[in-house]
Fold this protein.
Amino acid sequence: MAVYNKLVRDRIPEMIRGNGQTCQTRILTEAEYKQELHKKLHEELREYLEASAQDDRHAVEELADLLEVIQALAGVHHCSVQELEAVRDGKAAERGGFKAKVYLMETTD
């Protein structure tokens, strides 16, 4: 028996049962869900950082996992993915993105 005690993707229990195993699950409260999403964000970020040192394909898979968690967190904050993208787009229009690779070293008065 393996103990996980963590938030998993919606179809994971179905996949476990499909493999002939059993699993025990429960539905989280909203407060628990937000807390577990925060943990999942840290987990997925760590996995992305490890993968990015290996190869691009694995790194992109981990980025997709991060994006899934970010989209779920947007919902927790009563924001649609489209609204989140609009906020991101607005900030990019005002301040720019990161494509130019600008590295700020210092400022003076």
Q: What stands out?
A: Residues 30-52 form the longest helix (23 residues). The mean pLDDT is 97. DSSP finds four helices and no strands in the chain. Residues 12 and 36 are 16 Å apart (CA to CA).
